[in-house]
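re: that chain from earlier
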Amino acid sequence: MLNQFSRTQLLLGKDNMEKLAKSRVAVFGIGGVGGYVCEALVRSGVGAFDLVDYDKVCLTNLNRQLIATRKTVGQYKAEVMAARIREINPDADIRIHKCFFLPENADEFPFAEYDYIVDAVDTVTAKLALVMKAQALHIPIISSMGAGNKLDPTAFRVADIYQTKVCPLAKVMRIECRKRKVKKLKVVYSEEVPTRPIEDMSISCRTHCICPPGAQHKCTERRDIPGSTAFVPSVVGLIIAGEVVKDLCRK
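^ sequence. v structure.
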């Protein structure tokens, strides 16, 4: 019967579409990368999501984040993404976690129910905690390396963490994964040398932070505020989504 996923089924087949419909994917970080991951996955037929993010949409997100519009500024990212997913597939099963993932709250998440984990968070601490959880429970995971300060969307690659090069974040992750005896980790990383952001205090979030009162992590507390574009994180998100779909279909 003709349905919204019929064109995808022409390529993947009925059995794989049924696998996707029964799969639950947890996306940690619903920002520039994570938003596009969710978009592509729901349009591909993935039937269940856990969306994890504490942040609210900020004016400075409009340059790159799928869920960011003038209308959604000030709303929780996870809630905005959930609403968008439901507009695409009203039957999608969505659980929202309005919090940051940390080692301290890792046990509060239903990892045993996840068929796949997408790591689109910013901090090394959270990334490593996700990797260790995934490894302990034998859950497939894919991790996004640095997408900030990049201008070349064609320089991104899919590889094991130990095969990466150039990317500063990947270097740190290689070292820390080796310490923790992580044997393998699929990542998306860039071989482009990061561009150094222009130091312009007149437009810097560090001196003109517009985060709402009570925000857990304000721009003024950040060690570094990276530059970003619309065409880099979107590509990373779509690459990740493609890998998730392929891996779920192989299960």
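Residues 13-250 form a domain with the Rossmann fold fold (CATH 3.40.50.720).
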